[in-house]
């Protein structure tokens, strides 16, 4: 009888130990899932290395040291060319981006909404695509599919270097009515933050 009781007691202890181990394993698994989810979200919102990094690395010249935004003349997705001087007297958001850049694509709906809301107040967004130079048709198709309502031009290493050597995208510059760069941001920003900055300049 004592032997049976002892055997049952040992069995119960083993069951308890297994239950404890199982609970611990579940907690650790859940913790690991949360950590992985956080890392994935951070990765999705992190800026992407610019394809212009290698092109600009070997070029001479320094980044723009004055507060005036460098002018440029670049081929436009809509045909012809666009220059920064075309937007003289307006508040301009200059956005370096690419079709393969996750954070860039996530901010496009916000840009579309802001262009619509502020255009009549003297605000313009200009997107400078840093896609491969051979991907012009792909960029044009992407612009059409996304319903982008602001100007998109095809960028190059020269304009990326002129704006401080753009290393990651999205990189966005806010330019006031006098053509001065008042702020620059790397990475995905909130719509509310941009709206506050834009309204202060209009």
Give structural attributes.
single chain; 202 residues; alpha/beta; Glutaredoxin; 2 domains; five-stranded mixed beta sheet; two-stranded antiparallel ribbon; 6 helices
CA(first)-CA(last) distance: 91 Å
Low-confidence stretches: 36-46, 50-66
Shape: globular
Task: Bin the strand percentage.
Answer: 15-25%
Biggest sheet, in brief? 5 strands, mixed
Count of individual domains: 2
Structural account:
- This protein is of the alpha/beta class.
- The protein has two domains: 45 residues; 154 residues, Glutaredoxin, CATH 3.40.30.
- Helices cover 47% and strands 19% of the residues.
- A five-stranded mixed β-sheet has the order 6-5-4-8-9. It has a two-stranded antiparallel ribbon with strand order 1-7. It has a two-stranded antiparallel sheet with strand order 2-3.
- A hairpin with a 5-residue loop joins strand 2 and strand 3.
- It is globular and about 65 Å long.
- About 14% of the residues have low confidence.
């Amino acid at each position: 009888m004592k032997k049976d009781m002892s055997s049952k007691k040992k069995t119960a202890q083993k069951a308890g130990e297994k239950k404890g181990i199982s609970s611990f394993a579940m907690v650790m698994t859940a913790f690991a899932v949360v950590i992985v989810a956080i890392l994935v979200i951070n990765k999705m919102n992190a800026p992407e290395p610019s394809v212009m990094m290698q092109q600009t690395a070997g070029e001479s010249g320094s980044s723009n040291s004055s507060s005036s935004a460098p002018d440029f003349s670049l081929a436009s997705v809509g045909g012809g060319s666009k220059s920064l001087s075309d937007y003289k007297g307006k508040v301009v958001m200059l956005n370096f981006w690419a079709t393969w850049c996750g954070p860039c694509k996530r901010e496009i709906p916000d840009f579309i909404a802001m262009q619509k809301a502020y255009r009549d107040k003297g605000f313009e967004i200009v997107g400078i695509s840093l896609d491969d130079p051979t991907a012009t048709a792909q960029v044009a198709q992407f612009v059409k599919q996304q319903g982008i309502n602001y100007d998109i031009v095809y960028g190059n290493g020269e304009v990326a270097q002129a704006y401080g050597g753009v290393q990651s995208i999205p990189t966005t510059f806010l330019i006031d009515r006098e053509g001065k760069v008042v702020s620059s941001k790397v990475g995905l920003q909130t719509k509310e933050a941009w709206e506050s900055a834009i309204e202060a300049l209009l």
